[in-house]
């Protein structure tokens, strides 16, 4: 198992969807939308297909249903995008289709894309299991396409020395975060009362009461190790 510290610094924005963050998305989907009227014998398929393509990004975010932030690495985003564009290009290579076939195929590709994105995001976090201690990797926020990062703590330590080093690294990380948070609150108190850094999710988790902010000031290596062993 792994403790996932999803510490993501992003600004609020309208949901756009992971694929929307890919560099070729606008070009590809502009082509798909502009040529949708040539893909079905039945005129009723055109508005339905157009709506599916227009709402692709927002619908993606609605269907992800993730309990963790939608943060994807650039490498995995490229893999998802390549798979989706390949399916879409193949669909558009055909001539006009019989009624309902084209929008149904769009829905199939959409569902496959959602599954690919879900798996990509989860796999990156599960990779933490194969590490020992604090690890951070760069990602893109699917909410607003800004650069972000995920920090995690892996338990896959092969010796007591590695474990002690891992816990010390976690302790240093927590203390640094706590100091930065206090410093930020002091700087902002005069002009922006109540402003402070968002508390990382793992610090307020019911399973990790011993790592909550009130205990950080006097947190020792032994305390942190004991807390992690218990949970």
TrEMBL record:
InterPro entries: IZUMO (IPR029389), Izumo_fusion (IPR052868)
Keyword Signal: yes
Listed Pfam families: IZUMO (PF15005)
Homology family: Belongs to the Izumo family.
Domain of life assignment: Eukaryota
Region forming the signal peptide: 1-15
Signal recorded as keyword: yes
Keywords: Signal
Organismal lineage: Eukaryota, Metazoa, Chordata, Craniata, Vertebrata
Protein name: IZUMO family member 4
Entry's Gene Ontology cellular component terms: nucleus
Taxonomic source organism: Piliocolobus tephrosceles
């Amino acid at each position: 198992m792994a403790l996932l510290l999803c510490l993501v610094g992003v600004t609020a924005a309208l949901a756009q969807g992971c694929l929307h963050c890919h560099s070729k998305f606008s070009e590809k989907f502009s082509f798909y939308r502009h040529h949708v009227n040539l893909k079905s014998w039945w005129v009723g398929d055109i508005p339905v297909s157009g709506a599916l393509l227009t709402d692709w990004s927002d619908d993606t975010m609605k269907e992800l249903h993730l309990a963790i932030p939608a943060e994807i690495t650039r490498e995995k985003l490229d893999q998802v995008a390549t798979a989706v564009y390949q399916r879409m290009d193949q669909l558009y290579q055909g001539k006009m289709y019989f009624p309902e076939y084209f929008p149904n195929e769009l829905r199939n590709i959409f569902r496959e894309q959602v599954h690919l994105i879900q798996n990509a995001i989860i796999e990156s976090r599960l990779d933490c299991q194969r590490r020992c201690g604090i690890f951070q990797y760069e990602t893109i926020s699917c909410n607003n396409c800004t650069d972000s990062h995920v920090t995690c703590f892996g338990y896959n330590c092969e010796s007591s020395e590695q474990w002690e080093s891992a816990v010390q690294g976690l302790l240093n990380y927590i203390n640094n975060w706590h100091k930065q948070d206090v410093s930020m609150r002091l700087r902002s108190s005069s002009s922006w009362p109540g402003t402070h850094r968002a508390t990382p999710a793992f610090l307020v988790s019911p399973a990790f009461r011993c790592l909550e902010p009130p205990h950080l000031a006097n947190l020792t290596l032994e305390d942190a190790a004991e807390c992690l062993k218990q949970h």
